[in-house]
Amino acid sequence: MKIIDTIYLKKTYRLGRIEVNALNGVTTSADEGEFVAIMGPSGSGKSTFLNLVGMLDIPSSGEIYLNGTDTIKMDERTRTEYRLKNIGFVFQFFNLFMELTAVENVMFPMMLSGHPFHRERAEELLEIVGLNKRSNHLPSELSGGEQQRVAIARALSNKPKLLLTDEPTANLDTKITREIMELFRTLNHDQHQTIIMVTHNPELGEMADRIIHFRDGKVEG
């Protein structure tokens, strides 16, 4: 079953009098349970595509279906609720709340969605990512790799159908990068988590099931 289906997706930004075509007619898809890497040079539209699929932005034209649902026609409140319940995000810079502990960071999306057992599930997720003994530590007390693990646990908190990751290992050393990628593979294989990962690193791309190459706002091939 297709979890992502985009049809002739376009996104144009206006910088003064200049129009920049960040995406120029992207038609592509991903199946439920796939681990897909999106690769291409800087400025090719990778992150723009991820933001549109993740409902963080709205395309200039085209169609986006997530699990068969037309997300573009949703009003803002419906989009927010759908995104919270169905999509998890892992970013390059972690984006943790620095005043909250690891377990509180993981709990936060569940509290927003009214999850009744948020503490218990947060502890379970931290155990999955190997941080059950660090649950009461603040982000400032964790290494970069540990912070990214917290971010991954948080992204999984509402059992999302889709996990979107944008250069998730760019700020990490080689050893930690390998550990994070192995964690993604485990989530994909053992829990059938659908993952879409933007990366510029060919070695990381090869760990995915499939690579979609972007160039000049279009899908190559």
UniProtKB/TrEMBL annotation:
Keywords: ATP-binding, Nucleotide-binding, Transport. InterPro entries: AAA+_ATPase, ABC_transporter-like_ATP-bd, ABC_transporter-like_CS, MacB-like_ATP-bd, P-loop_NTPase. SUPFAM superfamilies: P-loop containing nucleoside triphosphate hydrolases (SSF52540). It comes from the Archaea. One of its GO terms (molecular function) is ATP hydrolysis activity. GO terms for cellular component: membrane protein complex. Coiled coil: none annotated. PROSITE patterns: ABC_TRANSPORTER_1 (PS00211), ABC_TRANSPORTER_2 (PS50893). PANTHER family: ABC TRANSPORTER ATP-BINDING PROTEIN MG467-RELATED (PTHR42798:SF2), LIPOPROTEIN-RELEASING SYSTEM ATP-BINDING PROTEIN LOLD (PTHR42798). Belongs to the ABC transporter superfamily. This is ABC transporter, ATP-binding protein. It comes from Candidatus Methanoperedens nitratireducens.
